[in-house]
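hey m, so remember when u said the tokens were messed up on ur end? i reran from scratch. heres the input so u can diff it against urs
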Amino acid sequence: MAGSSDRTDIITMRRVRDRIDRDFARPLNVEDLARGVHMSAGHLSREFHRIYGEPPYSYLMTRRIERAMMLLRRGDLTVTEICFAVGFSSLGTFSTRFSELVGVSPSAYRDDPSRSVDGIPPCLARQVTRPVRNREASARASA
């Protein structure tokens, strides 16, 4: 019956991931996510990592930075407005996380015209613009 249990875990983790995708701009933490699916925070973190390859907090940060990248490319909001719009409560934390994932500061990203996705189909634009952690980028470059 292990297959049934694993399927239930996958369904539960999908619900957690969907909540992160939907509510990324709201205050979220692992304890609240775990409470929502009647699990301990530790168990949720282990299962989410097992199924998706990264902890729920990292996934949340990636979603927030992805959205920030899109808003920065649009160019009609300030970096500070974008910081708060995507769920960060500190400009410093936002800038640090953005730089860790993207490799440049939010301002540098916004000011780089080569970041435009004009003319690229949305399904491809999302793949091309998805943030990649620096250690992942260096592993890909050496491969």
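this time it looks ok to me. The two ends are 39 Å apart (CA to CA). if urs says something different then somethings off w ur setup not the seq
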